[in-house]
Amino acid sequence: MLIGRYYNGIEIHRENKMIYAKFLCPHMAISTCKVNGGLRNDLKYIFNHQSCEPNGHYRNTLDLAINQPAEYLKMLCRSQNLAPEKSACLSTATNMNHAIVKFADYQGVEVIAVSTGGVETNAVRVGDPASYSEANGQFEIISDSNYDAHGTINIMVFISKELNPGALVSAIGIATEAKTAALQELAVNSCYSGGLATGTGTDQIGIACRLGGDCPLSSADKHSKLGELIGGTVKRSVKETLELHNEYTPQARGKVAVFVERFGMRVEELINNISMLLPENRVEILIQNFEGINRDPLIVAGVAAVVHLLDNVNYGILPQSCLADVLCSYGAQIAAAVSGNYRRIYDYRDRLAQEIIATHDGAVIDLIAKSIAMGFVEKWDD
After folding, report:
1. Within the chain, which residue ranges are assigned CATH 3.60.70?
2. Cα dihedral 122, 155, 89, 133 sign
3. Which backbone phi and psi does 315 adopt, to 5 degrees?
4. Of the candidates 84, 68, 79, which has an alpha carbon nearest to the alpha carbon of residue 17?
């Protein structure tokens, strides 16, 4: 099915678990594709395809994709009558029906971004511990972490004007920053550390620009209009594809549970930790009504502030010596938001100050649980 035709230079089609761009005129492309990747000016197609289901689906052809990627590309191209020697391929487990196409233009320069994405099990922060190493064509698992490569953000970008090679490389950087900005705005956590994710472990990208015409554009940095167009279209397309595939929206991410996930804690564990601090007759009430706490904007704001301040201490922006004071103050904000009684905030702070003896991640989770429990006990103090 034809999705769209743009600047009389490309057609975007979706067919049989594949979205492909067909070049109607010569383009220069740069991509991370295993076959026909790098910088090329002889491609006719770039495509993104779903290679398997997102969870627990290991097809025989996946071994071919890993060990003989050129043969895998030929197999895919045969299915759609595409020329394999003129094609570059991105792959993912994401449903192609969740792909989002975004368009922007300015004074004759058109930019089209096509993104698919899933981040629930493979979101990573740059610099997180590696899962494997490669030497002499062989891969060795080097991490005891729960390595799960299912979850990928794939981005294709098409530009109606010619770019010089340096600007085309710069466009890769801009698109990558746009992806990271999208994840930041959705508060996506790394699955492998306590930091915010900057991408997934298996992200892929392809960018192509039309050849010929006017003097090639020489800049795609963040001060240039072209950089703005690339950044805006990519960020919007990534955010919207994650909404379709993972149901990630700004509103859906506004939960206490999202922020405690940074510490490897599931919502059930948090509820259990709070319950242990409550009188027995309040535990069932908490369990039945926790979603109200989980989504309360003022409680979420307090928890988000605690996590953000801990980040700033870990980055060295704030000194470690002030963390206990900061945690007590914002813990008191959380307790007051739960109880609804802000006149008690100084008492909450004093009580928390007597209990904080450490500032490691586990102690921060304990503080959040204690603050919520403290407020919940007094919310319905008969």
Report:
1. 2-246
2. negative
3. -80, -15
4. 79
